[in-house]
Amino acid sequence: MKKFINRVDHFLAESLAGFAAAHADLVELNLEPVFVRRKTATPGKVALISGGGSGHEPLHSGFVGYGMLDAACPGQVFTSPTPDQMMAAAQAVDSGAGVLFIVKNYSGDLMNFEMAAEMCEAPNATVLVNDDVAVENSSYTTGRRGVAGTMIVEKLVGSMAESGANLEQCKAFGDHVVKRVASMGVAFSSGTVPAAGKPTFTIGEDEIEIGVGIHGEPGRRRARIAPADAIADELLTAIVDDLKPAADAALLVLVNGLGGTPLSELYLLFNSAHAWLRQRGFTIRRVQVGSLTTSLDMAGASLTLCSLDAEMMKRWDSAVQTPTLRWGR
Amino acid sequence: MKKFINRVDHFLAESLAGFAAAHADLVELNLEPVFVRRKTATPGKVALISGGGSGHEPLHSGFVGYGMLDAACPGQVFTSPTPDQMMAAAQAVDSGAGVLFIVKNYSGDLMNFEMAAEMCEAPNATVLVNDDVAVENSSYTTGRRGVAGTMIVEKLVGSMAESGANLEQCKAFGDHVVKRVASMGVAFSSGTVPAAGKPTFTIGEDEIEIGVGIHGEPGRRRARIAPADAIADELLTAIVDDLKPAADAALLVLVNGLGGTPLSELYLLFNSAHAWLRQRGFTIRRVQVGSLTTSLDMAGASLTLCSLDAEMMKRWDSAVQTPTLRWGR
User: Fold this and answer.
1) Where in the sequence numbering do the catalytic residues of A fall?
2) Pick from B174, B198, B231: which residue ends a domain?
3) Could you tell me if A131 and A109 are in contact, meaning their C-beta atoms sit under 8 angstroms apart?
4) Each residue of A212-262: pLDDT tens digit?
5) Is B106 part of the contact surface with chain A (CB cutoff 8 Å)?
6) What pLDDT sits at residue A138?
7) Cα–Cα distance for residue pair A80/A106, rounded to 1 Å
8) Which of B47, B55, B179, B233 could disulfide-pair with B93, CB 3.0 to 4.6 Å?
9) Span of the secretion signal (chains A, B) (predicted)?
10) How far separated are the first and last CA of chain A, in Å rounded?
């Protein structure tokens, strides 16, 4: 295992410490229990909290800040955060308008966020994200997995909360957005969990895993390496079959790197996706390309489509000021 | 070779087309000859042009926009752009105040930019970046290589040009900045040039290349994999020995991923660098962490220190609006 690491059991703490030191203008790191919170709160707004296993950076900590999350609770690598992290985060960032938890659909995350929600004294609600169309149930999941589309939910609901919407409105909007987001990924290589010290799965020199999960969970099929156009075709066919966007839908396209794939290839994959969608008469209105929901050092990428209505477009464009996304302010 | 690619000889064109389509609000792609230019020019300012072999994305195209470059000329992968690209870019973006070429010190780049400068009808000057302290001469270089520090030069000089400084002032400021930037990198794996189809160099399962170049050029030594703290120590010792920042220097620290290394590890490496610098009494005033000057899919990272004076700090903080860097506007 070759990683920038000192000790396996210090990986998360040291990575988070570096993150917090690098972005001390925007975020603060709380220890015991661990969570990342905004440096500057917006008084009186609904507090948005997300979290999940680490190894997917910049998700979720990189999206803490103005216009997105109020706090993020990182678990150990590929391990759910604990209810005490979520409760402490809620207590720290609730300013009286209640707390909205944004949860990716994994059994452990869901159970722990549910426990936190029950014990949380503030009024609260949960938005469950399950955008991965690859498989119906999976290794750690009943129902579909939550993957890269989660950052779109966080951005859109974050904007709505920032504008003063109440808890009920934020929850309803979040549920609305979730229904309009669909994703699917492909792996060229497996990531390596530091504590395991070896790749999560083995894959041949000329093989790819189509529909892979962000923890290396199996997808739909193991295939021979194929041209980018063919990969985009398989992913987008599955996504469009599921999402069924209207012919005149305003699409947000997210090309997400899984950690080990450089930007030059992600742009090439976007070029393939762009051609595929245009050939079928779809209109791309917004684009995001980058490694935003990773699986440690996995090589590969996912595609996400989000069908934007006017409100969602406005929320996507609104100002955001986080370590990872910054625009319009 | 597993990459998002359709045909080896279409890699650059398709990646650039995807880039330009994704960022059509900020940039335009010119074909025959190929260059990327700002969508919206600032009239009457000195035009900044950079370029170099592709494979280092987002350098340079990702830094075209308000407050940074006016145009970027991408060559084929690891191959210098040609003088006709540079001349066409200069003609397109010169608005009467002259052209400043920002060139990484590689023999091919230097020769072609010199030819373009000679033939260019507009008044022009060149800033040569040679921030890599690892080796004095190298495979493609007489003198030190230009690496990740280049984006700092582009940001700072870009801000000065945007504020209305003339060509002489921009050139002098660029030369001043170059003297205050030093970098060194380490590779865990080799990138794979699409046309070659196999890694540029071989490296053992437990080996790293300390001082590697951004084309996979040899560095100072081949070593056993070491803890992040030890790697940071070796890189920073070399950088500080060369840069000799004053004890009260205001440092900008850039942790740059080489393409195949995820953000979580870059933050951990920053944590190591942060501790190292603080232990020696240095003050970190600005931080940038990300994969900004890559070597295709190489796993590894580089560290860059820049010793900021008051003018440079102001120029770093000023507004920038490019596909890759955005703040303050």
Assistant:
1) 56, 215
2) B174
3) no
4) 999 999 999 999 999 999 999 999 999 999 999 998 899 999 999 999 999
5) no
6) 79
7) 9
8) B47
9) none
10) 41
CA distance A209 to A203: 8
Count: domains in chain A: 2
**B137 shares its domain with B186:** no
- pLDDT-derived band at A329 (thresholds 50, 70, 90) equals low
Full residue range of the structural domain in which residue B226 is found: 181-319
Residues B191 and B169 reside in one and the same domain: no
B56 is catalytic: yes
From the list B191, B194, B192, the residue with the least C-alpha distance to B7 is B194
Same domain, B40 and B143: yes
- CA-nearest of A113, A51, A110, A107 to A76 is A51
* CB contact (8 A) between residue A270 and residue B58: no
**Residues of chain A numbered 235-294 and touching chain B (CB < 8 Å):** 255, 259-272, 274, 287, 289, 291, 294
Q: Which residues of chain B make contact with A294, given a CB cutoff of 8 A?
A: 262-264
* ipTM for this model: 0.98
Lowest mean pLDDT among A8-12, A284-288, B46-50, B244-248: B244-248
Tell me: the pLDDT tens digits for A52-100? 999 999 999 999 999 999 999 999 999 999 999 999 999 999 999 999 9
Nearest CA in chain A to B207: A2
Is the same domain home to B136 and B238?
no
- Does B191 fall in a domain? yes
Chosen from A261, A268, A327 to mutate, greatest number of chain B CBs within 10 A:
A268
Question: Cα(A129)–Cα(A145) distance, rounded to whole angstroms?
Answer: 8
Residues of B in contact with A17 (CB under 8 A): 271
Contact across the interface for B268 and A225, Cβ inside 8 Å: no
Domain boundary among A122, A154, A179: A179
Q: Is residue B4 part of a domain?
A: no
Q: What's the CATH number where B310 sits? A: 3.30.1180.20
Mean pLDDT (chain A, rounded): 97
Model pLDDT for residues B44-79, shown as the tens digit of each residue? 999 999 999 999 999 999 999 999 999 999 999 999
A58 and A173 share one domain: yes
> A320, A311 in Cβ contact below 8 A?
no
For residue A124, give how far its alpha carbon lies from the nearest alpha carbon of chain B (Å). 30
